[in-house]
Amino acid sequence: MHSVGVCHIARQMLDVLRKRYGEESEEYRELEQDRREILVAALLHDVGHGPFSHLFERALKHPKSPPPKYPKDHEGWSRRIIEEQFGDYLRENGVDVSVVLGLIDKKNRRHLLAKDFISSQLDADRMDYLLRDSRSAGPKYGEFALAWLLHSLRIGRVPTTGSTDGVWRLCFDSRKAIHVVEEYIQAREFMYVQVYIHKTTRAYEAMLLSILSLARKICEGDPNRVPSPCPPALAKMLAEQPVTTAEYLSLDDFRLCGTIIDWSQLTDDGDELRGALKRKCDQLINLRQPYKAIDLDTRDKQDKALRLVTSVEGTPLAFSCHRDDFVDRAYRNIHYRKGKEQEEQADWMIHLVDPEGKTSAAEQVSDVIRAISEIETTIYRLYYDAHDPEMIAHLIKEGWLPAPPDNREEVHA
Amino acid sequence: MRDLDEMKLARVVDAAGGIDGRVKMQKIVYLLKAMGFDLPFDDFAIRQQGPYSRAVACSADLLTGGGFLIETRKELGEQDAGGRPIVQYSYEVRETFSQFLREHFEIEAPKGQPALDEIAKELMSKDRKTLEVAATKLYLQREENLSGPELSGELMKIKGHLREAFEPADTLLGDLQKRRLLK
């Protein structure tokens, strides 16, 4: 649904700009030429994601002996799927597939204006997922005035290295858009803190990582040893074997959830790792018992946590604890920390344009945006399985958790 | 990025004996990857100062925030085009952490190549602009398959302001190739 939403918003953006500038205008002409490619890229930009998107990529390892040109990540899979599954159809319908692939390729430096629709700090992708996730998760603070944002959409010439005249980029009207851009950036900041990196969200993610790591450990490179039932494509990927495009596409969130339900009902054969897998799947999907978190808010705790996760590597305890860290900003201000991130500069600014065509970065115009962009959202946490007695004993021994009170009754004389 | 990938960056900083400047850090990581050292950070793309990886930038921030890297800020006494002071951020590994990194996050050198410490220190001794031009040229050759006049033209277009670094960059790349460190 998200991809359909992104395509819909991208179409709205194009329509607003066509109406404002005219099909043959200098500003819009390039977009009209790429219109179909932009819409296709919007629709297919996430097609290469595996189940639970980035998490699946973090949990699995690249095949040991991949065939030539085997995709390295979800972007590689997107390129492959678009080419193999949709290439002929798209070409028959007049779509330039190489342009579509370029638009979803973060490394591509061409078609910058068209790329702004798919991959920028205020693109159709972010506009859709913020509103959609806000609605799905419940909090109202992820919302912003989409209609007004679209109404204030403009095209402007933005100065850039290697071009004295600047290049056409998506901009917003400096007289109208300030407050809605502020609202959007604030919404993103709130959604990150309250939803995407909320400790419970990340706790469930840590459990899912443990489950997939355990399954990988159990099979030790042999797909036939993955606990059954399991989709053949997942078994191959857990065993670090390459899969075909059709096999990759057969996996989605529902199939992975179904597999976790099946694994939660594994018969107990006395094997320690299979037992742990069954228990964790049960905790995740049936009992809803996410991992507990400890904030790593001092350097000592940071050190201890790193030493803990490295010391338990190769033991069953490794599947019951997880060190989590994350850093990002709701808006990457180029002047943030006085030039620390200058490398990203024009690629990642939200540009505003005045009626004379003069462009400026949003943070130069708005104190609110400048203030928010200096908030670095960082988390450092240690997650642990509070239902694994051995993990708890280890954490008590290492001084992470207090020892339980002595239950023996005191004998009074 | 996978879990603990940022520790590989800490190990590079450790091997180089500290790195002065985030730009230099990006280019050293890019060149080490090009030499075949087993490093994560697959998201390099051309930005203002050549190949840039957000994963490297985020890793540096995570390591600094966690107290594993020590960050030093220094104003260079120059200003950029917008009149803002040019600031350099330098990084070194906290002393007590170095041994731990070598024990748990060692990065093996590709077969037949000198150890990471030797190469990282050699790259660290080069000028920032030389590394910037060398990494950009290599990126254009490898990722965008440019060669001949097309390569020279593109390099001039995006790095023309560093023309004085073209020759040392060519010398560096030529030397690495001669020693078969670059495939």
Descriptive labels:
heterodimer, A: 413 residues, alpha+beta, Growth Hormone, Chain: A, 4-stranded mixed sheet, 3-stranded antiparallel sheet, globular, B: 183 residues, two-stranded antiparallel sheet, 5 strands, 15% strand
The percent range for helix content of chain B is: 40-55%
Q: How would you classify the helix and strand content of chain B by structural class?
A: alpha+beta
- Relative strand content of chain A: 5-15%
| Mean pLDDT over the full residue set of chain B | 91
Low-pLDDT ranges of chain A: 334-338
In short:
The complex is a heterodimer of chains A (413) and B (183). With 413 residues, chain A is α+β, with helices and mostly antiparallel strands.
Explain what this protein looks like in three dimensions.
- The complex is a heterodimer of chains A (413) and B (183).
- With 413 residues, chain A is of the alpha+beta class.
- Helix content of chain A is 50%, strand content 11%.
- Chain A is built from 19 helices and seven strands.
- Chain B has 183 residues and is α+β, with helices and mostly antiparallel strands.
- Chain B has one domain.
- Helices cover 51% and strands 15% of the residues of chain B.
- A three-stranded antiparallel β-sheet of chain B has the order 1-5-4. A two-stranded antiparallel ribbon of chain B has the order 2-3.
- In chain B, strand 4 and strand 5 form a beta hairpin.
- Chain B starts with 5 loop residues before the first helix and ends in a 5-residue tail after the last helix.
- The interface between A and B is large, with 38 and 40 residues.
